[in-house]
Amino acid sequence: MKETDYRQAYEQEHLKCADLAARIADLEAKNEELEWKLGRIKNNPLWKAAKPVRNGMHWAIRQKDRIRNCGGPRGVIHKIGYKKREREAMKQFGTASFPAPEQAAVERGTVFPRMVKISILVPLWNNRREFQIEMLDSVMNQTYGNWELCLADGSDEAHSYIGEICREYAARADGRIVYRHLEKNGGIAGNTNACLEMATGEFIGLFDQDDILHPSVLYEYVKAINEQNADYLYCDETTFRSGNIDHMLTMHFKPDFAPDNLRANNYICHFSVFARTLLDGKELFRTRFDGSQDHDMILRLTDNAQKIVHVPRLMYYWRSHPGSTASNIEAKPYAIEAAKGAVAEHLRKHGYEHFKIESTRAFETIFRIRYQIIGTPKISVIIANKDHAEDLCRCVTSILEKSTYDNYEIIIVENNSSTKEIEEYYSRVLGFEYRQALEKCGKESEQTRDTDPVLRSGDGRISIAVYRGDFNYSAINNLGVKYASGEYVLLLNNDTEVITVNWMEELLMYAQREDVGAVGAKLYYGDKTIQHAGVVLGLGAHRTAGHSHYRQHRQNLGYMGRLCYAQDVSAVTGACLLVRKERYLSVGGLDKSFAVSLNDVDFCLKLREKGLLNVFTPFAELFHYESASRGLDDKGERAQRYNRESERFREKWKKVLEAGDPYYNLNFSLDRSDFSLKVQNS
């Protein structure tokens, strides 16, 4: 470049900088003018007098948002009832759950084969005096005695009383409390790692400085270590108002280990205790994930664990006070990005690439994860049908017109239809006369002995397979799968209608994973209340299986935000279920002995037996005008048949049902689908 060119470039940049400086000066002048005008408005007597009105308007807007998130007035009524039951249940989970003196004596006297030493790590920094004492007391009062409390204190001189309190407790703890004042505060991550350097236990427990432990938590954990060979443990928890654990705000009753749930949000959180060997010589907390260092740690250690055990008891009390994460995530806004970073690193470790992690409407640290779809595998949509041309037409039309995924075929499995309307519809979608083609196939089948003919449209997109036997949902779908040319099969009821255009992609991104069996969608009734959001074992009057969040409004966030992220469940409904064809066949398809009901749950449990996860995603949405086509099972012969199939299901899966649904906490009632807690009789 010539010198003149350099000079011209320099002058151009100089002019740009001058122009930018002039713009900044202009904006600053306008900002000063706006601030002056705002000051005049705020100092105006009318503005001050109108403050109650403005506050009322803001309150009304907030209530409107809350009502919308609850699903309208009906949702608010449901929420009020739920909260009333929750308040009643809270009475049994605070100090009332602490062991009586007799039980405490039994726990203290228990000698386990493995009396493991648990080192509890508590990073300290400028803690309040009363919080510090209550935290220390909750450890001293543990009924299991082989513990070590490691305290690394980064407090400043103004909080020197922290050290005085710790040394006082250490003097009467028989050497079980180890205290160290740090030269420099290293934050949560640095201070916790300093605690780890002092620890000598076989197991490590993580405890926050302002929280409280249930007196029996270590006893229950050591019991699980001995009985189940657990190497990672966690329990249920609650937030409480500062000062009294019986003043609970939110109780969190968690599922057993669920990897998809954990990727979407740190549901494990407190109280994590794990075998020291899981660290594999690596640091406990990594400073680059400060604010979400526990989520990062849990993802790493559960990857290494051989036996993760959830103790389904509320045994951790998370104090809510100004500045705590329990009180407000905005107190630590960097935690959101740190959590995304931790999940991203975890996903890359498991071989996933080109994924997206987004905050959801439930909470900023509850994530929607979009996995990359590899290739464009063909999906065979199987639809069982008898008559009901209008329902079938609506279903098929919504697939053809709304779906953004285009490598699919539709196989309608016809079962003894008799109306003229359905024959006309079949002729229309095939592009030729259905009845004539069927009769021709009938003559050919006499020679080939093929009793279940299949007719294909000219472009091959839609086929009609004919099942001539009595109605049997399992056998009908199995026939459809027989003729499926796709790598994946999608069972779909004829009374459904597509809502989200990328519904197939949302299902496929999970079904493609090596660890996933069946994937189910979120289904609504015509009034936009929920028909399906995952299946819970043992739920309902028959104690077979039922749908969670049943009849809640579409806008409802669900229990702890569960309607806003993909999660692991025991089963999903066959009304919309995607699975690899190879996996469908590997478990024998749907069991024909379940002719009408529970065949989908049985199928999912067979997949679960193979160690596969079943996933529910709320991001594939359809209407399901349930029972519009075949009616209800609540009267006469249908009710009797349902009772017979329920009995068969309970017998076949007796041990599984007795163990309880791992994704539905045993503290929840099986009489309601809204995650209501069991309330003990007073």
Topology:
Blueprint: H1 3-42, H2 45-49, H3 51-70, H4 72-90, H5 101-109, E1 118-124, H6 129-140, E2 147-153, H7 161-171, E3 177-181, H8 187-198, E4 203-206, E5 212-213, H9 217-228, E6 232-241, E7 248-252, H10 259-264, E8 273-275, H11 293-304, E9 308-320, H12 334-349, E10 356-359, E11 367-370, E12 379-385, H13 389-402, E13 408-414, H14 420-430, H15 434-448, E14 454-456, E15 462-466, H16 473-482, E16 488-492, E17 496-498, H17 503-511, E18 516-524, E19 530-532, E20 535-537, E21 545-547, E22 567-569, E23 576-580, H18 581-586, H19 599-609, E24 613-624, H20 636-652, H21 654-659
Parallel strand pairs: 1-2, 1-4, 2-3, 6-9, 12-13, 12-16, 13-15, 18-24
Antiparallel strand pairs: 4-8, 5-9, 6-7, 6-8, 10-11, 14-15, 16-23, 17-24, 18-19, 18-23, 20-21, 22-24
Helix pairs in contact: 3-4, 6-7, 11-12
Compact summary:
With 682 residues, the protein is an alpha/beta fold. Helix content is 40%, strand content 19%.
Explained architecture:
The chain has 682 residues and is α/β, with parallel strands linked by helices. It has three domains: 47 residues; 232 residues, Spore Coat Polysaccharide Biosynthesis Protein SpsA, Chain A (Alpha-Beta Complex); 281 residues, Spore Coat Polysaccharide Biosynthesis Protein SpsA, Chain A (Alpha-Beta Complex). It has 21 helices and 24 strands. Strands 12, 13, 14, 15, 16, 17, 18, 19, 22, 23 and 24 form an eleven-stranded mixed beta sheet that branches. Strands 1, 2, 3, 4, 5, 6, 7, 8 and 9 form a nine-stranded mixed beta sheet that branches. Helix 6 runs parallel beside helix 7 and helix 11 packs parallel to helix 12. The protein starts with a helix and ends in a 23-residue tail after the last helix. It holds the Pfam family Glycos_transf_2. It comes from Acetatifactor muris.
